[in-house]
Design a protein that fits this description.
With about 280 residues, the chain is of the alpha+beta class. It is built from five helices and eleven strands. It has helices at about 5-15, 145-150, 160-165, 175-185, 195-215; strands spanning about 25-30, 35, 50-55, 60-65, 65-70, 75-80, 95-100, 105-110, 120-125, 255-260, 260-265. The strands form three sheets. The protein has a five-stranded mixed β-sheet, with helices on one face. It starts with a helix and ends in a 10-residue tail after the last strand. The chain binds a DNA duplex (16 and 16 nucleotides) through loops.
DNA sequence: CAATGATCCTGTCCGC
DNA sequence: TGCGGACAGGATCATT
């Protein structure tokens, strides 16, 4: 389940892999995976990528033809670089939903078991119309205890649920929210509106720390996340509560369900009265 | 506007 | 061995 660090890892890999290459075409093998803006009235290929931008869990690849690719991996999407065979000889892989053909006999397979991932092709000036309302970028200067507190304190929902809302903070998912709340020693059931400034400061600090550490380690490979070279990330080896039986202090980790999603936390380390 | 629930989809795992 | 059901869960849409 790619969250911000996994998306950044993939995007970094793409930037390297596409260096000096030209995109020749985009193929779709599953109805709905590739969405082409209806107002696109010319063939945007061949085109060269000019910039690679991440916004929340969205990857934006801007091309020199004034067109952009918007890629979202959702839960099981993977991009796999392949330069092993002449393009014409490559069969469609299992669960391959789309393909980005490059020159130099390279291509990117878009593999997505559960078919929720999307690739949108649209004019660069039209990109914002394809993105939902996204909140603070946790690794940008706009992410401060002040801006975060302002948004969180306006919500009655539990802090765990509020942090998963992409219109509050963009890029967090279930794994990193559980992890950062443990590190900040905040009980996941605490109403966001009731968080003290001190608690918000800890949440902001631990969010930046856990995301930065995870990016440095190439993300978390919990189920099937892979880098584009198909290697696994390393951060799963550093998780403290997510899918764990005990926390680093040896306490029993509890699993509850909030807003339909599993929450892992330590009732001893994350007490509600921790100020 | 906020909060909730259903939906999309397939592989894996568990109990019987 | 196989079958049904729960679970995994990001984002979107409809509903309250």
């Amino acid at each position: 389940m790619p969250e911000l660090p996994e998306v950044q890892t993939v995007l970094n890999g793409l930037e390297k892999a596409l260096q000096g290459k030209t995109i020749l075409s985009l193929e779709c093998f599953y109805q709905g995976t590739v969405i082409i803006d209806p107002s696109l009235d010319f063939d945007p290929f061949p085109a060269r990528p000019v910039s690679f931008v991440r916004r929340g869990k969205y990857m934006l690849i801007h091309l020199d033809s004034g067109i952009s690719l918007i890629i979202h991996l959702r839960m099981t999407g993977k991009l796999v670089l392949d330069s092993t065979l002449p393009q014409a000889d490559r069969e469609i892989l299992k669960h391959e939903r789309a393909r980005i053909n490059l020159d130099q006999d390279c291509l990117l397979h878009f593999i997505d078991i559960r078919t929720f991932g999307k690739i949108v092709l649209c004019r660069t000036d039209n990109v914002p119309n394809y993105l939902p309302k996204l909140g603070l970028e946790p690794l940008s200067s706009e992410f401060t205890p002040q801006t975060l507190g302002q948004k969180l304190n306006a919500r009655k929902a539990p802090i765990k649920t509020a942090l998963l809302d992409q219109s509050i903070v963009a890029g967090l998912g279930n794994i990193y929210v559980c992890e950062l709340l443990y590190r900040a020693a905040i009980c996941p059931m605490t109403a966001a509106t009731e968080l003290s400034q001190k608690q918000v400061r800890r949440i902001a600090a631990e969010t930046v720390k856990v995301l930065t550490e995870a990016i440095a380690l190439g993300g978390t490979s919990i189920s099937d996340f892979r880098r584009i070279d198909d290697k696994t990330g390393e951060f799963q080896n550093y998780l403290k509560v997510y899918q764990k039986n005990t926390c680093p202090n040896g306490h029993k980790v509890k699993r509850i369900v909030q807003a339909g999603r599993a929450t892992f936390y330590c009732p001893l380390c994350q007490k509600q009265q921790n100020q």
